[in-house]
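My convention is simple: the sequence line spells out the residues, with the fold written below as integer tokens. I include a record here:
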Amino acid sequence: MFTKNLKYIIMKQIITNNKIRFTTLINKDLLSQIKLISYFTNQKLNETINESLKIYIKDFESKNNTTLNSIIDLQNNFTPLNNPIETPSNTEIEDNKSISKK
């Protein structure tokens, strides 16, 4: 019971702060440098990484003349058409086979 409540509290905090935990591999030298930047600017490491990612994304968007949020919104708001793909019936397939044999 306690662990379920703890999981709920932890997930609630993650959702509330709009942050997500993930694991990745990073070059050792880059990690050392970003840690130093974090230390010198008196920021938490995750704040420094977030700022770096924001700058990288802005640079990418300006170089490629696009906005990634609009692409993400398009994907999230996408609704499929109500036109089901028609599959040929068995008789149509058999008819096609007989025509091709002639």
The chain has a mean pLDDT of 78. Helices lie at 2-16, 28-40, 45-64, 68-76, 90-101.
